[in-house]
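User: Can you help me understand a structure? I only have the sequence.
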Amino acid sequence: MYTLNEGYVLGNPVTDSFTDVNARITYAHRLSLISDALYESAKNSCNSNYVNIDASNYQCASDVAAIDALTSDINLVQILEPYCSNAIPEPNEDVESVRRFLTKVSSPTATHWCRSYNHMLCYVWANQKSVQEALGVRPGTKHFWQYCNTTLAYTKSVTNVVSYHRNLTNADLRLLVYSGDHDMSIPHIGTQQWISSLGLSTDESWRVWSLDGQTTGYTKKLISSTFTLNYVTVKGAGHFAAEYMVKECAAMIDRWLAYFPILSVDWLKLIW
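Assistant: Let's start by predicting it. Here is the structure, written out as tokens:
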């Protein structure tokens, strides 16, 4: 019988700016985006540090530049989808012009589809006067709603929060961490590296979890005396995993919240 306790969930989390970014090159190699020869050269010349590059280390700088050239047109948040411009309207664009654009890119003759086009629908909806009135937006406080507001003025001073998660392992908490396995912006490799640094013991080794009889990803469970960490990958998902695999992520969260093992029914039969 389970004792109910508190917990938190991290999805494709930005955790350590060095580990997250450094893992991209290892990830690129695993996905065959760069050659074995180039990866080994960069690994040796850079001593596996692809972030803090010594300017005098010509070979390391050259290798990383070659890797950047090979991956510059890769969509980092979902490597299988096309690389597109942000596709977010400018403040001076009217809603009708955006509607015409969406109609054009959604036609059967469109060259390709970009996920960011879906985000433009939010712009169309949120910038309608009737919607803002219904939401209770006070007149004059917000003239233009942006999907991603990149104009906020702040200084980033915290680049690593692993110590916070390490402190939380001393509490009676549950943690669910999940990664879309096609996310190169915050690769699962880096996420698993900082999870390993927490010093937890393995309770359940790497195994399949599934939905509707299909492999949906992989999962493992780590524990301490009071703390439990479930790590899950979502097969085929990008950075915002639930945006790509809605049904699968809903099932994962539902199982975790219900204290149900994040495994397939077949695995449960074997265990019980």
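Now, to help you interpret it: DSSP finds eleven helices and five strands in the chain. The longest strand covers residues 201-211. Let me know which part you'd like to focus on.
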